UniProtKB/TrEMBL annotation:
CDD domains: SPFH_HflC (cd03405). Keywords: Membrane, Transmembrane, Transmembrane helix. Residues 1-23 have a biased composition (Basic and acidic residues). It comes from Pseudomonas knackmussii (strain DSM 6978 / CCUG 54928 / LMG 23759 / B13). This is Protein HflC. Belongs to the band 7/mec-2 family. HflC subfamily. HflC and HflK could regulate a protease. Pfam families: Band_7 (PF01145).
Amino acid sequence: MSSPHTHDHGHAHDHEHDHDHDHGHHHHDHDHDEAAPFPWRRTGLAALLVLFAAATACLVQVRSGEATVITRFGNPARVLLQPGLAWRLPIPFEAAIPVDLRLRSTSSGLQDVGTRDGLRIIVQAYVAWQVQPDSASVQRFMRAVQNQPDEAARQIRTFVGSALETTASGFDLAELVNTDGSKVRIADFEQRLREQIDKQLLDTYGVRVLQVGVERLTLPSVTLGATVDRMRAERETIATERTAEGKRKAAEIRSAAERDARITLADATVKAADIEAQSRVEAAQIYAKAYAGSPELYNLLRSLDTLGTIVNSGTRLVLRTDAAPFRVLVDGPPQLPAAKAGGQHE
């Protein structure tokens, strides 16, 4: 038989247990209500991240100085040339491949080639090139060298080497190496070389040639000897021509001088003859006056003139002294008439 106290205690315990159970149940329902919104937020944030990643994967940036080729399952689909952002399908549907459009330079290296006159030269040329910025050229470049600039440079080097051989065969050595700068045709050589490779590189690689130049040009020992001989022969020819020209001018000057001398001598002879004739006339007039004034004195002077003409310092003569004109040496000058002497005295 239980006591009322015990029953009440048990009832109170059951009541307390029920109260605790109700309290726990109420607390669990409150936590469930507070945790419910968080999974939805995480899902939304994850979806936004996935959408952002997908959008980023579909964007492609085209840089300045580059073209971007969009390939679809490995095949070129389109070419983007304008710098900026563009859309594409995500990988693996579409991929973006950048193609460098900047200017590049390739050297041919030293090439041993033959000239038109059968001599050998060693020449090195360079080519400045870039991929043509249009869709067809960019795709052509990708197909030809798989978008590898180094491989393109190697193949361009082979093209230039072959073109050098062809171009050099159209020029003589004297047109490439000469002491006379006006005869050197290096600019024509470079232009001819460019014409040889320009169209081929554009059609094959989509590459545009911007400049072609000769970096170095040397001569092998055999060619150098032939060149020296040729230059020596040219110099000797020039020297011979100049010597002949000098002799011709000297002959012209000598001929002109001799002509002038003959003219001057002829003028002088004519003048001398005129002077001599005039002097003879004047001498005859003087003699005539002298004879008219004093015949004896005239005869004496004429005799002395004759002696002066036929006798010099080396002459030895044995002549009669009583014969003219030596009589005057013995007789002395003739005596003037007394009348004339007296008249003169007066």
